[in-house]
Specification:
- Keywords: NADP, Oxidoreductase.
- InterPro entries: NAD(P)-bd_dom_sf, NmrA-like, NmrA/Isoflavone_reductase-like, PCBER-like.
- This is Bifunctional pinoresinol-lariciresinol reductase 2.
- By secondary structure, the chain is of the alpha/beta class.
- The protein has 2 domains: about 160 residues, Rossmann fold; about 120 residues, UDP-galactose 4-epimerase, domain 1.
- The chain has 12 helices and 13 strands.
- The protein has a 7-stranded parallel beta sheet with strand order 3-2-1-4-5-6-11, with helices on both faces.
- α1 crosses α7 and α9 packs across α12.
- The longest helix has 16 residues.
- The structure holds NADP nicotinamide-adenine-dinucleotide phosphate (NAP).
Amino acid sequence: MTTIKNVAVIGGAGNLGPSVVKALLEAGFKVTVLSRASSASTFPSTVRTHKTDYGSSESLAEAFKGQDAVVSVITTAAASEQQKIVDAAVKAGVKRFIPSEYGVNTQHMEGGIAKILNGKKATMDLLKKHAAENATFSWTGLSNSMFFDWGLKVGSLGFSLREKTAIIFDSGNEPFNGTNVGTIGLAIASILQHPAKTANRYLNIASFTTTQNTLLKILEEETGEEWTVTHLKTDDSFKSAEEKLAKGDYSAFGDYLKPHLYGDGKGHANVPLANEELGLPKEDLRETIKMALAQ
Ligand SMILES: NC(=O)c1ccc[n+]([C@@H]2O[C@H](COP(=O)([O-])OP(=O)(O)OC[C@H]3O[C@@H](n4cnc5c(N)ncnc54)[C@H](OP(=O)(O)O)[C@@H]3O)[C@@H](O)[C@H]2O)c1
């Protein structure tokens, strides 16, 4: 039976990376973080670090020597670069590759979102090809919809904790999924602790399935204030996304996400979740919101 001990993490100092590194270390894996020669990233003293040129197969072969698994947390814009990385990992005898997905489920995309996330999809296709040709190699894909606690902090969910303002799209009642970044780290550690049952599977997780109106209600209760609410239509976001993408502006992604997540009747939150299978903790929505407000 495959056991995974040595894990290389690519992009371990970004928005998600530190939660992944922390969870892997706490689960007892021997972690090496790869980063670019040009990077100024810093890492905990408990991890080994390795400067790597992702464009050089020699550099990648050296980086992957003795690694059982690779977890890519590379930035979205570099998603296509993962293809060289995957080829080098397979060549070096890596047993499991977890690609940088961690958002929209790339196995069920269409239109502009599919175009923008093409690099992620191509990486997934390549992983499937390698696994079909090589019985000792496998992959796991992980979709977590929105980063939830991070999204509250940076405003990507449409709520500004500082200004106490909210943008509510459509009715505000469409359920959407979000996952706290620490939970994504736990899911990755669990996948690598259970390599057999997670091999060659694309899993969905979520800390919460909620609605914009539920969030607004809790935020108003917890701050004791009425928030300033702007109502927008996801049809208008979609139009804006199409216009931007036609000009090659990939910031269209944020506009495409609004109809994807919040469009009435879209039903994208209705996916089978692997939380229980991965042993993820049950989380409390109000507690997460209270923690975000306290920061
Ligand atoms: N669902 C959501 O709400 C959500 C939100 C944000 C991100 N995501 C997804 O989560 C994943 C990680 O995103 P993130 O925001 O954590 O990434 P990030 O912070 O933007 O970047 C992660 C790391 O990628 C490396 N990197 C940056 N530019 C690079 C380049 N040109 N070539 C190679 N490496 C580069 C850097 O590592 P070094 O400097 O150490 O080399 C950086 O620390 C992505 O797949 C992204 O799409 C999802």
